[in-house]
């Protein structure tokens, strides 16, 4: 049933309603709210899309308000798992953990209750961004949830004549504390990531009988602390339903209570759900699409929903906890965390600059605050501080992109100070934070990151034992980062910094091997290291590349595409090399290839749709004088790898990174080079796209005769003036322009070849 369209599900549910009515007294699961959101864009959002990972992490069916702290989903391996171990009160950080587990039960008091899995039925599960419900088939319990900003609302409907209990525990191995303030109120604290205290205050809708569990011993009591601390509250058999409202705080237990009082004390369940639904409607409604298939709309609007999972606002009553200096700060301006810039700088931040520039400014100022508090511009800012992950300092690209798109409400001088410090004084080593090492000194002197020969022993202790040096990936990524820093310096009239960083932006050329036509590693003597760029470098190619092979990193020069074209011998050679990318064989079995490169999913030839460094590559045909090939490739990739079902994400979605690619590409354009306020035209899925902008204007893209077959642009105009180049500017979009495309079934190889 999950693979059925939403409207089909509605019909089935309507037909089954009489059966549900007659079973009401025995099976109360039907009481869960099954209302659907009318005919708005909300009807197309399906949080289960991508819930089975092909090789890597699945998406989670997350219920939350857009970009807010409370994020809830059932705890299970993935969609294939037919048992739920519990429900969190919130996910603290994307893929990095949850806190405060809650689960209902009907078994008599037993310490083993907390460990029991809860079987459920997918077809009795309802998953929407603003509402979640499931039916636990063993115990006959319906679980419902609706999110607030710093609060949540669980509703448990029990079968009649049974024991009824709610169990709470910590999610992590650290300390937790529980204290029943009364027979219906509880507060708790859980330590996350070793030193972050997270506070909870909640109230049940009915009085119960509290019990505590410590070291597997269950007894009457109201307070318990420790790594094995758990609590249980039992309710009268006559009760049919128990509600649990709660609030979370990263500041203090007092603030948790205040969040509760201000946000949810006077809210009932339906009001909480309707408020959440309205919040999502306000987010997705500014983009209206017409035409296309129902499946394409489902993929599009679900991707748009995923783009608003992160970053999250953790400001509470004009204050926030910062993991960057372990202090509470007073600041009325929203403070956002939970961003993985290696994944999000490419498309998610650019999308937010388009749709929500004021929010993006708050996020950028949050980055500035993090730099002020820690001394470094962060790369993966999460609640506990900067998560040392991946490589590069791509916040420099984000700041440049924002500045050139007219965003001004952030401290750009302080931002540049942090960007420059990272460029000059921080280590470039993957998965490491802190001051530079001897390898970084080498990079600054010689213009490339040195690599080791196959089998050569590592001598630099700071190198991560698994992530290795990633020497080529680091050199290419830092060239982009230095280019962005140089351009921001130029715009800020910092001439000396501009000249230094501009020179470093050309470092990518130092690893271009003109004989093999790949970016290849060199040792510290300047000698080429002979490798197979398709397969060498250990797991994920990490000795030289990162998660992908040399075919992917062949194109990692978004900041200087004309320079890359020149290295390859001109536009024709560049185009032919792109063709080869999409056709190149693995050269070995799929088993052997994916055993070494599990991140290289969504393959077409050597092109990996399932990993972020590949997003811009299909648009490079626009720069080679063959835009029709971009149109063909984009349609193929969207059709192949982004289905409206549980397999609908080809790789790690990473909280909006991949979804932003889908949103942009489905609309018909993409920001190939963040930092240059230009969009490259692809092939829209829809006959009309209207974007209501924050400035009051509307950008409209009209694709006449657009269909599954009619994917090629025959002619184009911008604001009524003929357009014969495959791009347009950010200012044209923000001024409320109209881009008109005439689509056809066969390529017009002459369109888009102008300058």
Structural class comes to alpha+beta
Identify low-pLDDT runs: 1-32
CATH topology term of the domain at 62-284: Beta-galactosidase, Chain A, domain 5
What is the C-alpha radius of gyration, as a whole number of Å? 27 Å
What is the tally of beta strands? 36
Helix content: 25-40%
Separation, N- and C-terminal Cα atoms: 50 Å
So, CATH architecture of the domain at 62-284? Distorted Sandwich
Enumerate the strands of the largest sheet in spatial order, edge to edge or round the barrel: 5-6-7-8-17-12-11-10-15
State which percent range the strand residues make up.
Answer: 15-25%
Query: What is the overall shape?
Result: globular
Biggest sheet features: 9 strands, antiparallel
Kindly provide the name of the CATH class of the domain at 62-284.
Mainly Beta
Please give the structural blueprint.
Elements: H1 6-22, E1 83-84, E2 87-93, E3 97-105, E4 118-119, E5 126-128, E6 131-136, E7 141-147, E8 151-157, E9 164-169, E10 176-180, E11 185-192, E12 196-204, E13 209-214, E14 217-220, E15 223-226, E16 230-235, E17 241-249, H2 253-263, H3 269-284, E18 287-290, H4 294-306, E19 312-313, E20 319-322, E21 327-330, E22 336-337, H5 341-344, H6 348-355, H7 357-374, E23 381-382, E24 385-386, H8 395-404, H9 412-425, H10 438-446, H11 471-491, H12 495-504, E25 512-513, E26 518-519, H13 550-553, H14 561-567, H15 571-583, H16 590-596, E27 603-604, E28 607-608, H17 627-641, H18 657-667, E29 669-670, E30 678-681, E31 688-692, E32 698-704, E33 712-718, E34 721-722, E35 727-729, H19 730-734, E36 738-744
Parallel strand pairs: 32-36
Antiparallel strand pairs: 1-4, 2-3, 3-9, 5-6, 6-7, 7-8, 8-17, 9-16, 10-11, 10-15, 11-12, 12-17, 13-14, 13-16, 18-31, 19-22, 20-21, 23-24, 25-26, 27-28, 29-30, 30-35, 31-32, 33-34, 33-36
Helix pairs in contact: 4-18, 6-7, 7-8, 7-9, 8-9, 8-11, 9-11, 11-12
């Amino acid at each position: 049933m999950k693979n059925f369209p939403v409207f089909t599900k509605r019909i089935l549910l309507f037909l089954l309603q009489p059966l549900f009515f007659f079973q009401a007294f025995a099976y109360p699961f039907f009481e869960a709210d099954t209302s659907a959101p009318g005919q708005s864009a909300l009807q197309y959002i399906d949080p289960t899309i991508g819930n089975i990972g092909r090789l890597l992490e699945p998406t989670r069916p997350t219920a939350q308000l857009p970009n807010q702290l409370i994020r809830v989903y059932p705890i299970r391996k993935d969609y294939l798992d037919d048992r739920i171990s519990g429900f969190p009160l919130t996910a603290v950080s994307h893929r990095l953990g949850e806190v405060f587990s809650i689960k209902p039960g009907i078994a008599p008091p037993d310490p083993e209750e907390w460990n029991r899995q809860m079987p459920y039925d997918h077809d009795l599960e309802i998953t929407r961004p603003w509402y979640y419900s499931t039916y636990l088939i063993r115990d006959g319990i319906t679980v419902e949830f609706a999110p607030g900003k710093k609060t949540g609302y669980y509703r448990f409907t029990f079968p009649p004549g049974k024991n009824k209990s709610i169990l709470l525990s910590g999610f992590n191995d650290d300390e937790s504390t529980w204290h029943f303030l009364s027979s219906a109120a509880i507060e708790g604290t859980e330590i996350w990531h070793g030193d972050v205290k997270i506070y909870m205050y909640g109230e049940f809708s009915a009085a119960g009988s509290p019990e505590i569990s410590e070291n597997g011993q269950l007894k009457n009591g109201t307070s318990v602390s420790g790594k094995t601390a758990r609590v249980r509250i039992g309710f009268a058999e006559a009760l049919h339903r128990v509600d649990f409202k709660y609030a979370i705080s990263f500041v203090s237990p007092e603030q948790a209570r205040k969040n509760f009082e201000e946000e949810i004390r006077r809210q009932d369940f339906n009001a909480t759900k309707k408020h959440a639904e309205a919040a999502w409607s306000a987010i997705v409604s500014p983009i209206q699409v017409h035409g296309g298939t129902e499946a394409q709309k489902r993929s599009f609007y679900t991707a748009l929903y995923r783009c608003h999972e992160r970053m999250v606002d953790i400001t509470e009553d004009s204050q926030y906890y910062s993991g960057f200096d372990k202090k509470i700060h007073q600041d009325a301006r929203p403070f956002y965390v939970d961003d993985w810039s290696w994944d999000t700088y490419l498309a998610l931040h650019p999308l937010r600059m388009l749709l929500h520039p004021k929010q993006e400014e708050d996020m950028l100022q949050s980055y500035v605050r993090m730099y002020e508090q820690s001394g470094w511009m962060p790369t993966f800012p999460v609640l506990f501080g900067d998560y040392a992950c991946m490589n590069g300092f791509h916040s420099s690209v984000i700041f440049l992109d924002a500045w050139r798109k007219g965003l001004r409400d952030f401290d750009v001088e302080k931002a540049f100070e942090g960007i420059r410090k990272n460029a000059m004084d921080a280590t470039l080593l993957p998965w490491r934070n802190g001051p530079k090492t001897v390898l970084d000194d080498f990079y600054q002197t010689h213009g490339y990151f040195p690599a080791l020969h196959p089998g050569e022993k590592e001598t630099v202790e700071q190198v991560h034992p698994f992530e290795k040096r990633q020497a080529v990936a680091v050199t290419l990524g830092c060239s982009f980062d230095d280019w962005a820093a140089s351009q921001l310096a130029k715009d800020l009239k910092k001439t000396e910094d501009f000249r230094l960083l501009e020179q470093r932006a050309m470092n990518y050329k130092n690893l271009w091997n003109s004989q093999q036509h790949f970016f290849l590693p060199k040792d510290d003597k300047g000698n080429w290291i002979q490798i197979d760029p398709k397969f060498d470098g250990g797991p994920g190619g990490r000795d030289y590349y990162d998660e992908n092979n040399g075919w992917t990193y062949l194109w990692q020069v978004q900041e200087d595409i004309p320079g890359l074209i020149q290295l390859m011998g001109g536009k024709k050679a560049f185009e032919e090399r792109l063709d080869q990318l999409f056709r190149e064989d693995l050269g070995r079995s799929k088993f052997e290839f994916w055993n070494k490169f599990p991140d290289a999913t969504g393959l077409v030839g050597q092109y990996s749709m399932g990993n972020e460094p590949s997003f811009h590559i299909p648009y490079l045909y626009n720069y080679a004088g063959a835009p029709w090939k971009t149109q063909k490739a984009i349609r193929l990739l969207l059709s192949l790898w982004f289905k409206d079902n549980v397999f609908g994400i080809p790789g790690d979605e990473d909280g909006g990174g991949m979804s932003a690619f889908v949103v942009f590409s489905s609309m018909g354009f993409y920001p190939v080079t963040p930092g240059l306020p230009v969009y490259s035209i692809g092939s829209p899925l829809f006959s009309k796209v209207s974007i209501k902008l924050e400035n009051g204007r509307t950008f409209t893209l009209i694709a006449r005769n657009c269909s599954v077959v009619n994917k090629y642009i025959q002619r184009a105009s911008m604001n009524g003036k003929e357009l014969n180049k495959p791009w347009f500017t950010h200012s044209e979009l923000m001024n409320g322009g109209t881009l008109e495309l005439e689509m056809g079934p066969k390529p017009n190889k002459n369109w888009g070849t102008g300058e």
